[in-house]
Amino acid sequence: MKIVILAFGKLDQSFYREAAQEYLKRLSRFADITTIELKEETKYNLAKNQQLNTQLCLDKLKAYSSHEVWFLDLSATCLTSDELANEIGKVQNQTTGKMVFVIGPSDGFNRQLIPSHYNKVAFGRLTLPHQLCRIILLEQIYRSFKILGNENYHK
Q: Does 46 fall in a domain?
């Protein structure tokens, strides 16, 4: 399976980088994971920043047209770990075997520009720092593969 994480911002703290490396190492037996970091536009007003960042993201997604796209979105449906594993399993076994998870910019996206056919998922109603969100995403992807393989993993 191929998974791309499209994220605004970098992991600039060593403890985030170490956590990401650990989960990427664990995930290497299940999937080929690529992380693409986008530079967030912040110098304009909110609406302009959202428009520019949304367009940058959509432009990057053009290269992944054969992938299932999942936006992390506070207003989306919250999935349990089992439900996320089920979604990943569907992509792995029944469709393309390719996914993109998008972690948006701090100002959010211009929702009117996001195509409605893209999937959305929330990891709760909390606003998380983007770096921590990336670690949680990696952990949940790892947990999903452990669930799909009926392997033990702490709860």
A: yes
- Say whether 72 counts as a known binding-site residue: yes
pLDDT tens column, 79-90: 999 999 999 999
- Is residue 117 classed exposed, middle or buried when 0-12, 13-18 and 19+ CB atoms within 10 A define those classes? exposed
* Mean confidence (pLDDT) of the chain: 94
123 is in an annotated binding site: yes
Residue 155: inside a domain, yes or no? no
Q: Does 127 count as an annotated binding residue?
A: yes
Residue 116 located in a structural domain: yes
Residue 138 annotated as part of some ligand binding site: no
pLDDT tens track for 23-66: 999 999 999 999 999 999 999 999 999 999 999 999 999 999 99
CA separation for the pair 148, 53 (Å, rounded) = 34
Q: Is 104 annotated as a binding residue?
A: yes
Separation of alpha carbons 137 and 132, rounded Å: 9
The reply, when asked if residue 126 is annotated as ligand binding, is: yes
